């Protein structure tokens, strides 16, 4: 098509084919809406292609490789000689996983009548959108639109990635060999996840964090467990330290850093990875032509239904204020689709779980103790250590603990957090418990299978009530101090 031709009419256009966008498009198709899903690259978005899935594939591979050094005490005798990690083989395996998932998303879109258009979308007005598709330009007229364009790495002007020495997370996951030394700028969850994985594969890793501790958005007592493991892996962690300059000289990156403790210092590494945050992809969508409002940071404020200030235009996922999490985006996308189709739907739950795939893993849902107290609750808090769990010890994974935060008067569960092996899967029980407004007795009276890691929730709940079996119960719960 050329500009000026008759627009293709559709019920809904969805801009962005990531976890939120394709979930919305598929749900709309299920509900009988005509849908055009516009994606400028590959279905699945950053999460499937360059983020969540590839990074977890690397973390898993690194974990399996790292286990080899401790198998001897389990009675497993390996042949003499040092094991090696072959990055190109891992890249092939990762690509096969991503490809399989890509095909699955594409098939589901087709099966639900979603029209997928590859191109770059721009709003022309409040009911028209233009799409550049190669050398062509197509126009679509819509009744409703869903903005699901995601986010990109925040890159300071003096730290431009070059794809070879100064890297963003996408570049890191495309490497063909493990860097001998690696400097990571930013000790948040992406930096710590990738840093610990590379350390397990043999890289000498230095993490540079401007805040007073790593994982600054996570409760301090949870992140301390990760810091312990980082040091055991030989990682160097520099806190309250800012990077002021980066130079590439003779195949190395030299970072000039400053801190109150050490003043100015230089850190040199074979590669430098930037992981200091993400920003929403909203600047080039033509939102002004559609009349959609953004805040000063480029995020689009939305109602619980996902609608913007233009009631027929919705926004979901990383372009909206709140945690940039794939499962949050998918939930928002399904809600927006259902509202568009006339169903009574809303994102009405505050319980958005988080998972950090460090060593050990961290996961949680609901309030921390500090957050609950700030909201005026009198709380009881109890923890149960992994080292007292039979399954954890049998797995040689005794680091970490589970924690429950409870309203002292009603015994309503306010928060559940866990740091330790398989925390990413264990937190599902916590999400369901809080969503059902469970009291701590509901968890304590529920029979948990033995021997499993899930028993940490049972024992933590019983500890709040003063009758845990596998730890000594304190006369007063620690939260009352």
TrEMBL record:
Listed EC numbers: 1.8.1.4
PROSITE patterns assigned: PYRIDINE_REDOX_1
Entry's cofactor comment: Binds 1 FAD per subunit.
Residues of the Pyridine nucleotide-disulphide oxidoreductase dimerisation domain: 352-460
Keywords: Disulfide bond, FAD, Flavoprotein, NAD, Nucleotide-binding, Oxidoreductase, Redox-active center
Example of a GO MF term: dihydrolipoyl dehydrogenase (NADH) activity
Protein name, entry field: Dihydrolipoyl dehydrogenase
Source species: Brevibacillus fortis
Lineage: Bacteria, Bacillati, Bacillota, Bacilli, Bacillales
Gene name tied to this protein: lpdA
